[in-house]
Each structure stands twice: as structure tokens, then as C-alpha cells.
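Please describe what follows:
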Amino acid sequence: MSAGLPSRVLTLHRPVENSAPGHRYPASVGRVSLDLVAVALLLGLGGWLSVIDWREHRLPNRLTLPLFAALTTVLTLAAAIDGSWLRWGGALLGAAALSGFYLLLALLPAGMGMGDVKFALSIGLLCGWWSLDAWLLGLILPFVIGGFVGLGAVVLRLRRLRDQIAFGPLMFIGWLMVAVLHG
């Protein structure tokens, strides 16, 4: 890899000798970061999952599980390219820990749904890939946001105190906040 570029940046095309002076790669293709691919995956499918959960109060397996598999593949490739296996281990621990926490909540009466548990795999994976601080924010922010949303809905009389709210969108918004703070 050329100097100054992280090794987890993949070259999409071979160098083009007749491109603009000083540029070995076409500007329209260039290089793509695997971190950016992972963020784009979670942004796209996570956003879609949030809309589904908001409307239907469910997070379908046909989206949550392939999202986790795709993110795991991308981050494994990134770790293989730059040898960041410790970071990869942190990502896997992050996925297991966040999903395990949500599973404990799902076992409580009127707790989380199992879709939230599976969605937590992807959020925990990417937050764990970034850092322990990012993972902790990914754990805490959805509950803080949910508290404000729930309180606001009760005060505005849009919901009653015991009404359930879709948690997937809160998880996604919390992850978005972590992504902005991380980036």
C-alpha cells in the first residue's frame, strides 16, 4: 500500500497510468475503506429495520441475520488485511456482550423482543470494532434516548406510561450518534 493510507483501504482497480497527473486511480472509483463499507451496510439496512420496527413492532430475521453476517465478513476482511485481530476480537466480544445484555432483557416480562437481540449483534459488532468507549455509548444511548422519547410521548399524551415503543429505531439512532461521535 502507498504511504499514508491505512492498510485496510482496498484498491478497487489496478493503477491507471493515463489518469490525471499525480493520480494513479480513477477519481470516480479510487479507494474504499472497509470501515466505510461496514458503516454503509448498517446505515442502509439498520435504517430499513428501524422503519419496519416503527411501523410493525418487529425486526425480521431475513434482515437482521444477513446484516450481522455481512458486517462480520467485512470486518474479518479488514482485520485480515491490516492484521488487526485484537480489534476484530473486540468487535466479536462487543457483539456477544451487547446481544447477551439484550437477551437478558428479553427474558424479563414485557422486555425486549428477540429482533432487538439480533439487531444488537450488528450494533455491538461495529461499536466494539471502534472502541470500548464506542461500545459503551452504543449500550447506553438507546436507553437514554428512549427515556426522553417515552417521557415526551407521555407528557404530550401520545402514549400511556405502560405502552410499548419500538426499540429498534432507538438502537439505530443511538448507533448513529456513536458513529458521528466516533468519526
About this structure: The first helix runs from residue 34 to 56.
